[in-house]
Amino acid sequence: AQKVTQAQTEISVVEKEDVTLDCVYETRDTTYYLFWYKQPPSGELVFLIRRNSFDEQNEISGRYSWNFQKSTSSFNFTITASQVVDSAVYFCALTGNTGNQFYFGTGTSLTVIP
Amino acid sequence: DTGVSQDPRHKITKRGQNVTFRCDPISEHNRLYWYRQTLGQGPEFLTYFQNEAQLEKSRLLSDRFSAERPKGSFSTLEIQRTEQGDSAMYLCASGAGTHALEQFFGPGTRLTVL
Predict the structure, then answer these.
(1) Please, is A104 exposed, middle or buried when counting C-beta atoms within 10 Å of its C-beta (0-12, 13-18, 19+)?
(2) Span B37-69, pLDDT tens digits
(3) From the list A33, A45, A100, which residue is nearest B56 (CB)?
């Protein structure tokens, strides 16, 4: 079975603090892809990053970084020096090799307090 | 605007009525997905098209739901005999190629069944 778990329902941080959003996944596929999406208050989901199961290199993009660990089936997302504009719901998602079906977690609502 | 568009943005209907939603993907995107999202939840996969072929359909999807993608361009999602439990945001996403797998989401159609 394919499943994504985001145990953190809501997180509040003060601006400029670092915050890590957790994502744990389950899959029997040997080839799979993991994603993070941002859903701001306006509602439209925005793609942030894709990772395939063969590439465990961590990735950094500006204030965003991602830590993929197959050993713990986790794909965590860290925002450094958070800003008010980072306030949104963040979803982690999983798909297999074909990309025919995607599984989303329940999301983590992040509030950055000025 | 070259993003994914959905029409209508809002739909209010009475229980038992049929409704149809339209999705126009990004031009030349061969992959098209429909999702349903309820408050506080992540997008729930409904169905997937590659060009005009419907390749995947959620096993949880009621027979009252049907989707089409004639000519591999726009897609429609129809719900027959709507029920109050169908009230949700219906999201469409499109993607290009077979390896990238990123999806670009539309703004959604919010359905309210009275």
Answers:
(1) buried
(2) 999 899 999 999 999 999 999 987 889 999 999
(3) A100
Q: How far is A49 from chain B (nearest CA, A)?
A: 8
Q: Please, are residues A103 and A2 in contact by the beta-carbon 8 Å criterion? A: yes
- The number of residues making up chain A comes to 114
Q: Which of B42, B45, B50 shows the shortest C-beta gap to A101?
A: B45
Kindly list the residues from chain A whose CB atom is less than 8 angstroms away from the CB atom of residue B98.
Answer: 99
A49-105 per-position pLDDT tens digit: 989 898 888 888 899 999 999 999 999 999 999 999 999 999 999 998 888 899 999
DSSP A72: G
- For tokens 């744990």, the residue is A24
Task: Please give the backbone phi and psi of residue B70, each rounded to the nearest 5 degrees, phi first.
Answer: -65, 135
List beta partners, residue A76.
A67
